[in-house]
Design brief:
67% helix, mainly alpha, 288 residues
């Protein structure tokens, strides 16, 4: 694994390359946050009835006793200022990626948002998990340290999908492909009831009448997750892994009715070094 690391981005990292990566990643954050604002998920758009049973999540517990809900979320103008300051910090990172202060501020504010959001959705969702992990790259400013963190992100992502596959093998989900039909019934039953005449409703009904294809698709999705284990040993298939990230969450969105569009941020660490280096020659890399 040491040889695999040494042959890649670590030896080629330069300040301009680091700034290019951060600029591309921060554009994803800006676009996603604008989309979340359109969806009514900015802090200033959240209100009332936060999660009552926080379980054993220490972050939710800390949020509950911190008084943050009363100080930020319950006060519209403070909440709006939080949203705008977060957006401003990302914009400043894009303009001046060498400025450390804005990067630290953005990392802290987004981490706070990642706790506020699920609490006030009254559901312990983990849509933002990928963006929370990627958020740490803004805390490192030395090229050598950043290159190790960036490489570590890639291995961590391989672990996320690979371990998901292994867990399905161990707990038996891999050997119960019929569960896919039940997932469609549970998650899309309401859609079928309310939208019986749409094209997608016809596709769902066809799948329910032909469970073999659902089972094959379920197993295929699990195997796509398992293919990420290859990423621990070679980067030869990184372009395939990029397409698998996109495909896995597209399938989940269509057939499970659960959108993990935020997890598309995992694509960035699999982009080949040569592509980033070509981007350096473009004005987009710019000056810090």
């Amino acid at each position: 694994m040491q040889i695999l690391i040494r042959k890649n981005i670590i030896e080629d990292m330069s300040p301009s390359l680091m700034y290019l990566i951060k600029r591309c990643v921060v554009l994803f954050y800006i676009a996603d946050y604008m989309w979340r604002g359109y969806s009514g998920l900015w802090v200033c758009q959240l209100e009332g009835n936060p999660m009552v049973n926080i379980g054993y999540n220490p972050l939710f517990m800390l949020y509950g006793i911190s008084g943050m809900e009363e100080f930020i979320v319950s006060r519209f103008y403070i909440a709006l200022s939080f949203d705008l300051l977060l957006l401003l910090s990302w914009i400043c990172i894009w303009i001046r990626p060498a400025q450390k202060g804005w990067q630290v501020l953005a990392a802290v504010l987004f981490f706070i948002y990642s706790v506020i959001s699920p609490v006030h959705m009254a559901y312990a969702a983990h849509y933002l998990s990928g963006m929370v992990i990627m958020n740490f790259i803004f805390l490192f400013h030395q090229t050598r340290t950043f290159s190790y963190i960036w490489e570590g992100m890639r291995f961590y992502i391989c672990f996320v999908y690979g371990s998901a596959f292994l867990w399905k093998v161990i707990n038996g989900a891999m050997w119960s492909p019929a569960d896919g039909v039940q997932v469609i019934r549970n998650n899309l039953g309401q859609y079928l009831l309310l939208n019986p005449d749409t094209g997608m409703a016809e596709i769902y009904r066809w799948l329910l009448r032909n469970p073999l294809w659902v089972g094959l698709g379920t197993v295929a999705t699990y195997l796509m997750e398992g293919f990420f284990l290859v990423g621990f040993f070679t980067k030869k298939y990184d372009l395939i892994l990029i397409w698998l990230i996109l495909l896995i969450h597209f399938v989940i969105n269509i057939f499970v009715d659960t959108s993990f569009i935020e997890w598309y941020i995992f694509v960035f660490p699999f982009i080949p070094v040569s592509v980033w280096q070509r981007g350096q020659r473009h004005r987009f890399a710019g000056n810090p």
